[in-house]
């Protein structure tokens, strides 16, 4: 029953999208999947169509459990079923308020890992979505993980971001005494070059002439190729997810691509990623 964490301290790299859609692919194959939303932005929660009620317990309550003045709340107490068939430990903006309290706890790195243990055998796979930060929720997700999936875009700072993430891995390994490394890299929007964009998002030649803009497809391809080459040398598995409007459409409907648009370009890649994850069980 592997625990898989999707992480990158940079925002907009596709952590939530990759978590939801690989989880969806696993779920449609008959596996029981739990997604734990450790991001105060709660994008995984809304991406699975869950409308968190104000009084509903969530990951804030789990992380605050054990803190003086707060009731003990376990993961099993907050799990909800979603329309997709995936179980969810929802998050909320309140979760951001739990982080300062974690710094006061000696066991702060292991809160999530310990919380998962009682429910571990209930699921085929437990996937953790982490926030874009270097804080305690990211660290808890990494410490709790059996496998780590790094997501990145094809921007000019992607390589620098990976170097910074490796520093986080090294620091955690030094503290825990266990090696930390990522098994998979997922490059999102990696093929969104000019000719692959939807017509409405293409920059017309006339617009370019008016403003003196030049097409820069060659440099974009070169940049992407360099990132891809680096990832292929650094990670056992590398996947490139093409730009696909169906990704956002599916999230608006609260469904993974495997159910909303199973034949879409992005869905096919996430099926391939899910096949790798299945080998870890």
TrEMBL record:
Source domain of life: Archaea
Positions of the AAA domain: 2-174
PANTHER family: P-LOOP CONTAINING NUCLEOSIDE TRIPHOSPHATE HYDROLASE, PARA FAMILY PROTEIN CT_582
UniProt protein name: AAA family ATPase
Organism for this UniProt entry: Methanogenium marinum
